[in-house]
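Chapter review: from sequence to fold.
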Amino acid sequence: MFEWSDLRHFLAVARAGSTLSAGKILDVNQTTVARRIAALEEALGDKLFEKTAGGYRLTEVGSAMVQNAERVEAEAEAFARMVQQRSRKLLGMIRVTTNDVLADCLLTPWLREFTQRFPVVQVETIITDRRLDISRGEADIALRANTNKGPDLGDGVTVRRLATGKWGVYASKKYAAESGWPANAQELAKHPIIAGAGELARFDPAFLQEAKAAGAVIRQASSSILNIAGAIRSGLGVGGIPCMLGELDPELRLCFLFDEADYDLVLITREEMRNLPHVRAFNDFIASRTAALRHMIEGRV
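The C-alpha cell string follows.
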C-alpha cells in the first residue's frame, strides 16, 4: 500500500521532469525522490515513468494517474488548511449585511472562493435595504454604498473604505445598435428613459430632472436598481445604474458617467469583532477582491 507522500513525489517528478528538480521542489535529495517513485511503482505493480536522456517521461499509466493524484493533492491541502485554521482559531460565524445589488454583483460571486479557502468559517448573509445597526449587533459586518446623504454610523464600529463608486447612464448594445445612445446629458431627452421611483427618485441627478422637464419619455420607473438594469438590458430605454452593475453585464454599454450619485464602498465592522482572526480574514478577502474590480466600480473603463 502506498502513502500520500508517495503521490507528492510522483506529482513533483511529473511536473518537473526529473528527480533532481523534484527534490529541489520538495526540499529532499534526489535519491529520496527516486526511492519513493520506485516504492510507488512497486505498490501499484506498474511503471509510471520511463527514464530517458532528458529525464523522466510519464508512461501511459503514469499519465492516467496524474489527474487522480492532483485530486488527492487538492483534498489533502484543503484538509491541512482546515487543521491550520482551527489551530489559529480561524473559525466561527460571520453575519454580513448588504443590499441586493452589492450581494448580486460582489458578495455572492466571491463567497464560493472564500468558503473554499476558509471552510471552517460560516457566513450568514442578511440581504436588506434597511441599514442594520452594526454597533448594536444586528449584524457583524456591513458591505455598503455610503453617500453624504446617509445616516451617521455612530460609535462602536470601524469603517474600511474600499473604493469610490460611480454611476453611469447605460443602454443595451442592441438598443444602441438600433437607436444610438446619448453621448452626454444634453442628448438624454432624445431617448426613452428608465427612471427611479420611490426612494430611488430622491437621488435623481439634476440632468435627469432637466430631461424630464424637456419632455423626455419615461418608459418605466422602478424602485429597484436591479429591475432598472433588467429594463435597460431588455431594450426599453436608457437609464442610470452603478458602474459595477453595468460593467459586469456584457449586454450593456456605457453612454456617459455622472458625478451626482458618487458613493464610498465601505466595509463596516463591529469594533469588538474586527481583530478576530475569521473576521479579519473575511475583511481582507473582500478588500482584495474589490481591488481587482476597482476599475469597474470607479467607472475607469
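Two observations follow directly from the output. The domain at 92-164+265-293 is CATH 3.40.190.10 (D-Maltodextrin-Binding Protein; domain 2). The longest strand covers residues 252-270.
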